Prior knowledge:
The chain is α/β, with parallel strands linked by helices. The chain is 36% helix and 19% strand. Strands 3-2-1-4-5-7-6 form a 7-stranded mixed sheet, sandwiched between helices.
Amino acid sequence: xxxxxxxxxxxxxxxxxxxxxxxxxxxxxxxxxxxxxxxxxxxxxxxxxxxxxxxxxxxxxxxxxxxxxxxxxxxxxxxxxxxxxxxxxxxxxxxxxxxxxxxxxxxxxxxxxxxxxxxxxxxxxxxxxxxxxxxxxxxxxxxxxxxxxxxxxxxxxxxxxxxxxxxxxxxxxxxxxxxxxxxxxxxxxxxxxxxxxxxxxxxxxxxxxxxxxxxxxxxxxxxxxxxxxxxxxxxxxxxxxxxxxxxxxxxxxxxxxxxxxxxxxxxxxxxxxxx
Length: 275
């Protein structure tokens, strides 16, 4: 998700403002590294939930639009409305059936209609209003439609062996929470929140891409640390040398670590529900 709304009570701003700005060189490539790591898994889940011909889809925080375009080109859905607060990457790669909307989903009045699929990946974890937003996104579903949410889960616990990687990840999560409000601690609660929003057939799963030298996910984390370095340093858990050592560790044969997982949770609106 790109350009921010005003201020964040828990930090200095929002995702895309102090860090991960879409106007910074290389940000599109960083986002696409994440897409390479996760898109196949996301698409398999969306298609298993029925995404296909005739479906009208809403892709929130669509980034560079990789999921939106694959829904059209591979799943054959009828239309995708791709929404982001900054749409420069979406507008640069148009395809038939892709509608682009620059909008902020946290604003009142965001109600673009009924959809068979509402999808948001790596969006809600950056927003303090996530609980309210899940209820609102459920309201955007047509009867029988499915809401699919994916966000990161931190797998570096206190019992995880200390390595350059785990040290950097802990500093990253702590620093981003303090500066832009990113909070992955609530992500495991998504199934319950979907159920609380009135959805049925609720379930969830976790995907953890392997950290191997040269992989897209390893390059994603190294680039994320580079762009979020100031937030990491502010925690006092790392210095510049430690961040650099973590990046080298990812590309070495010594690397033995778990990436952050992607938890995907989904639920379906009852067929007899009204919008």
